[in-house]
Fold this sequence. Notes:
Four Helix Bundle (Hemerythrin (Met), subunit A); globular; membrane; transmembrane helix; transmembrane; Heme O synthase
Amino acid sequence: MFRRNWNCATLYSRLVNFSSSSSSSLHNFTHLRSSFSSSSSPNLHLTPSVAASKSTDLLSLVRHYGNCYSELSKARLSLLVVATSGTGFVLGSGGAVDLSVLSYTCLGTMMVAASASTLNQVFEVKNDAIMKRTNRRPLPSGRITIPHAVGWASSVGLAGTALLATQTNMLAAGLAASNLILYSFVYTPLKQIHPVNTWVGAVVGAIPPLLGWAAASGDISLNSLILPAALYFWQIPHFMALAYLCRDDYAAGGFKMYSLADTSGRKTAVVALRNSIYLIPLGFLAYDWGVTSGWFCLESTALTLAISAAAFSFYRDRTKERARRMFHASLLYLPIFMAGLLIHRRTDDQQFSEVNADGFVKSSSSVESSSSVESSDTHDKNGNQKIKGRQGNRARSPVAYASCAPFPFLPLPDEIFD
């Protein structure tokens, strides 16, 4: 009896313990589930913020390298090169402008110019680190590595040259490649060797409009030299003023500029004035060679006299203020000159109609003159019959005019030997 009661009591206690343990287990499971839910819900709320931070990091990275590539490419200078190339393309088109080919030409020119500017900074990274004007560039400041910059220059240079070769012609691509080599591997080292680098750099600046003309027409003629000649002569006073204003900085950077050996500044001013005067005949040549109308001749002459006056003012008073004034005058000259070329350019249709009109007038006048000559015979004192004829005038070729003013290396006019 006692044993049976003990077993009943034991069984009852075990049932009570099991129920309590089950309730505690259920409570623990509920607590664990709630804790898991509470711990997992913040993670679900943080996922959009993590995605936003990652997108922000990506945008900052793109912005960083975009700024570095823009500074390595010297974006504003490269855009000026593109503007001169585009102007040359429009002038070389003759009539209607092919906008698609113009776009490819400008894009290819931009890429090649960006490559040349990047290689220039790669070679001059130590000099740029010393100069105040350039020590914040991407390479001296360490924002980008030299191998990265070389890779950027190589890729855009090759792509730009290939684009010009496939979408325009091989002549334009050859001019672009040669200008890239001339700027990066000739002009850039010369800046630390000899002051002649300014004139070599002027040749580099004169090639892009020739490139544009070649891309449009497929060849190079004498008429295509108007804008390149203007760019060549314009760059001399432009860079002479810049070199005079920054000669302390250039001396600290180890560059051999013309103004550094000229302590008084007189030779620098003379060179700037002489090349400004060389710009004067270009407006007349553009009109005489049929590139523009007569209005451009007048406008170009007035514009050139203005920059020549600024150069003469610098020659008389060689101060930084006058040099800065000449520098600003040169900045205004080039866009106005190119705009005048585009506004007053003569198309092939206009020249053809003018030639036909002149030919009709000349043919009718020659018929009248020949009939009048045949009907009017004159006699000399001895009574011999004498017929007066008109001696035709030979038209002077553009080479004859070119020999007279800014291109002394061309053949002399035929009239000198007559």
